[in-house]
Task: structure prediction
Amino acid sequence: MAEIRIEKKKQIWPWIIVLIVVGVLAFLYFYGSAQNDDNDSENSMEEIGLNSDQEASNIPTFEI
Result:
């Protein structure tokens, strides 16, 4: 009689979990770096002694 080999299917769930985790980490990396860029511009204004109110008041206005 012939011997029949039975192979188990490879699990796909670990790969799906890995892809989800990598996706979440990538999102947090890019989203977090976007927020840090905003904070860096505010910090640079504080370093030279300006805040956003002072900077807006120093803009020259033109009247017609």
